[in-house]
Every structure is written in C-alpha cells, then in structure tokens.
Design goal:
By secondary structure, the chain is an alpha/beta fold. The protein contains 25 helices and 16 strands. It is globular, with a radius of gyration of 24 Å. It binds FE(4)-NI(1)-S(5) CLUSTER with Oxygen (BF8) and iron/sulfur cluster (SF4).
Length: 658
Amino acid sequence: MGDLGKSVTPSAGPVSGNGKTIDPAAAEILDIAALEGYSTAFSRVESMKPCPIGADGACCRVCYMGPCRLVGKNPDAMTGICGANLPTIVARNLSRAVAGGSAAHSDHGRDLAFTLLAAAKGEAPSYEIKDERKLRLVAELMGIKVDGRSKNDIALDVANRAISNFGQQTGEILYASRAPKKRQEIWRRQGVIPRGIDREIVQSMHATHMGADQDAEHILQQTVRTALGDGWGGSMLATDISDILFGTPKPLLSQVNLGVLKADEVNVVVHGHEPTLSEMIVVAAMDPELNAYARSKGAKGINLAGICCTANEILMRHGIPPAGNFLDQELAILTGVVDAMVVDIQCVMQALVPLSQQFHTKVITTSPKARIEGATHIQFNEHDALGVAKQIVKAAVDNYPNRSKNPRIPNYASDLVAGFSHEYIEYMLGGRYRASFRPLNDAIIDGRIQGAVAVVGCNNPRAKHDEAHFNLVKEFIANDYLVVQTGCGSIANAKYDLLTGEAMEYAGPGLRSICEATGMPPVLHLGSCVDNSRILTILTAVVEEGGLGDDISDLPAVGIAPEWMSEKALAIGTYCAASGAYVLFGVTSPIKASQAVVDLMSTGWERKYGGKMEFEPDITKIYEKSVEHIQKKRKALGIDTKKERVLFDMEARRELRV
Ligand code: BF8
Ligand code: SF4
C-alpha cells in the first residue's frame, strides 16, 4: 500500500519521532522526549519485547500447578500438567480476555443506568433528561408504556429495566430482539443469546477455571455469548442511556491534535471513558466564576480537551476538541501545559503519574474503581456531580501558576466533523419527514458505494502510531467504500483531515456523489468504543430497509481493528463476528499458537454465524481480504459491479490543504 510520503499534514515539516508515528505533532514531542530522556510507551516498547510464549497464546496460568508453557517443536502434541491441550489453553485465554473487555464496557453501561435512575428520582440534580425523544424510543423498545407519562416516570422504568438486564438470570437480554429476525434465529439455534449481561461474564470466568470447560469449540461458544451481552447489552445500553442523559449526537465542527492545547489558558484534559463526569467538567469549565478565578491566576481562561473515548463522548455532543488518541496521553503531558489530567477508567496508563511528577501536571483520578498510586484522588459522585467537577477544575486552575517549563505545544490542529449517530444518519439520508436508510441501500445496490467498512479501535506502540488507520481508510474511500469509525481510530484520521466534508475530494466518484448530495464526509465518526453498538443498529436498519438480503451477514460490510491492544477490542470483534460481520484485527494474534482455534473462529464461526474473526498483521492483506469479502457479498446479492482499484491521490490531498 502506498507510502505516506514525507509529510502527513502538507503544511508540516517532515515527520520524524524516530519513525514511530505518522503524526507530525506526536513526532515533534517524541523528538523532545528522546533528546531530554523522558520515557514513553514509544520508548518502553523498544526494551519490552513481547514474551514469546505469552504472545503466542501458549501459556496457561489458570492454576498454580503451572504456569504451563506449550512450546517447542510440536506444541500440539503437548499438554499442561492437568492434560489441557493447546486449543483448550488458547481458547481459554481468549475467552478470559473477552470476558474482561465485556465487563469493562458493561460496567460502564451499568453506571450510566444508575445515573439515569438517580436523575429520574431527582437524586442527581446535575443531570436531566436531554433527549426525551430517545427516552421514549428506548422505552418502547423495552416494552415500557409511554403514553401520558412524565419523562421522569418513564426514565425510572427504563433505568430499572436496564439495571435488571445486568443481573437477569434466565431468558434473553432485551436488546437481542433488536437484531434482524434471522440473526436471532441463528443465535437461538447456536444457544448464544445472553441470559443476562453479568451472568455470561461469570460463566466465562467459571468455565475457564481449571478443570471446567475443556473443549475449545464449546469454550468459544460461551465467549460469543458473553461478547453478545456486551454488544447487544452493556454497550448498547451505555450508548442509549448516554444519548438520553446527554443528548443524541448531531454533526458538529471541532479540531483535533495536540495543537488544541493553549499556552495562555488553564488546560484541563479529560481522559478515560465515562461521560458522566466529563459532561459536568464541560459545564464547570464554562463557569464564569471559575473563569474569573483562572484570570486571577494570570490565565486567559479555561481550555478543555480530551484523550481517548472520554474525548469522543464530549466531542460528539459538545465539540470539545480531542488532544489526541491512546498513544498521545503521555505526549500531552510532555507539552508542559496540561494543568490537570482528569482520568476515570480504562486505557489510562499508570506511567502518566511518574511522568506528570517531572512536570507540574496533576493527574486526578476520579473513579471509585480506579486509583493510581501517586495521583490526586477526587472521587466522582453523581449525586453532587457538578460540585465535584468544579472542585476538579479549581484544582487545575490552582496548578496553573506552577508551570515551570516552557510550553512546547506542537502547532498542529486539524478540523473535523463528528457527531454521527444512527438517528442523524437516517435523517441526513432521508430528510426530516422521511428519515430512512433507503438512499444508502440504493447507493450500495447501484454500486456508487461498494460497501461499508468500520475501522475502529486503539493504537498499539508495537505498530506505527496511526499509520494503519490512515493507510486503510484513505484506500477504502478512494475506492468507494464508506467508512465509519469509533474510538481512537476516529481521532487518528481526524488528525489527517479525513473527517471533514472536504475529504470527499479524496473519495472515489461514487462515494463522492453521495457526500455531495448529503454533505456528509466520506468517513463518519460514530463515537466512543461503546458506540460500536451504533454500528450494530445501523447494520440492522440497513437490513430492514430491504434489498440487501435479510441478515447482517448478507451485507457487503467489514469491521477492522488495525492497531488494537485492549481486551475490549476483542470483545467488540467477537460480538461483531457473531452478529454476522467479517472482522479483521491487525498487529498481532492472541490465538496463533493453535491452528485449531484459528480455524474455529474463521471458517468455523462463518459456518455457524455467517461472520468470522481473523488476525492479520499485514495491512495490505487486510485491505485485500476486506475488498474480496465485500465483493463476494455483492456477488451473492447479485449487485456486483466490477471495479478497478484506484490509489489514493496523496498529491491531490496535499494541494487541497496548501
Ligand atoms: O475504548 S480505542 S485505546 S480509548 S480501547 Fe482504549 Fe482502544 Fe482507544 Fe476507548 Ni476503545
Ligand atoms: Fe497448567 Fe492445567 Fe493449571 Fe493450566 S490449568 S496452568 S494447563 S495445570
């Protein structure tokens, strides 16, 4: 696949950063870090080679007769002390990772449900129901009566119904019924409809205990059930309740990259995942008294920015600019201008604290679930959410005069459009009075859009920062594949100008014609990682619109996590594959030690679920496999239109920017 050339942002100088990133802002800071001897994930990855046994997935640590390592010339012929064979061990390891990822997403969803409950009862005065339309919609999906009832009454029932889905012991989780009928039948036949969100996670942990489930195929069946409880349960509830409480996103303009930090203002950077606190920090950062207080300390005001999925949450709803994605978290501190980095849960590196101690930055932990030794802890409490947020912002202001080093903010900030929800896409395509996915289906049927590709997930320092996200997405849009993004992937491509209306210049003629007609960018930012659930509901709506088969597995669509690193990514990949999608992961494979497990999750799952999950470190192959899959689906639907591959026109992109 085409090289990036020597600069990413045309107005920028050459990217260096020792070749570890394609982002000129990150490169600038990495050069400073190298010169001044600061440790970052980019430098630590050099000395921390992956443990070869663990990396292959052939190490079992589930009991203390072990750890048992199945390595050597013929690991397939070996067993652990208990007799567990390689497929069992590899499947168990994956299953535990998927349970961990599902637990993380779903616990986030649970907390939102409790926040909704407190808001409905009037016990969380900082929150209100911002989107009553969505509340009523969700209530109807849950079978809750809405006519003639107040929004707080409805919200109370919605919250309780949501909470009960976590602890439900029998039956089927509520939102399984949102999937296409055929999909539900497949799940029932395979015995994988989750009974309750928590129950499946517990069963995964139990079944993978020493001496329990020791049949790789059966272990993977429970893995699927647990992951479906995330995608169609915990994550989908997290998205819905966030929309109800904070508003369903609509497109808005913002900026991205380290250049959004300001030298002469108090910089508060929120990092992590839950929108409950960050929503209040947005309010606190605009508080006139706190801004006057900031001025009294010599700052011009208070500047709020984000990292990771918290950034996505407040970007989608308020246009607050992301300062960067996962691998930018330490780099933000290295600018010397972050007065407080406010973190909650997930994807927060412990390294932030020792790094911050070499600057003036205060790392403030806020979640009762996550503390970091050496950080300042100001515990979030939804009953006094705004009060806590103000206390945090005040701590940042108080820290502003302690800045000791010269600010070194890289001068890069790109424009982006974010805020695409299921609801908005439907409205954008069909118009206010007949919101519909019909125009999208028609565009796919007539070949203007060849298919839809979700490029999602993390950064991983074992891969060049952002490179796979950018290289894949530019190729897809140049070849008329509509791209949707979430998580750190969307922040990546926002940095390289692909999330703007102008990016239609880089799209193929078919996709470009749709972008021109609707005003949408060729790459749609759908939100945070829990918002991958929006992809599930959009795909379902596309199926139900008609003309593209009767199940998600019929659609010309692919999901890719090219730079993944987290257990949550594995949970997402698993529920997408079990929902009928072809899923490809880059970087590395946690199952490569066992060909039997590789086959079970690829051809095996394709037979059972119509979707499959594969690990492919070669980005060019990811692109080719995706296109081949989409074209195979188009052929099966009788809508194939042979197209020659075109290369992304980097020169045109440069000219546009200059
Ligand atoms: O949940 S993409 S690095 S921030 S895990 Fe983490 Fe990965 Fe970013 Fe959001 Ni998702
Ligand atoms: Fe070894 Fe079996 Fe214990 Fe795993 S469960 S560590 S394979 S003895």
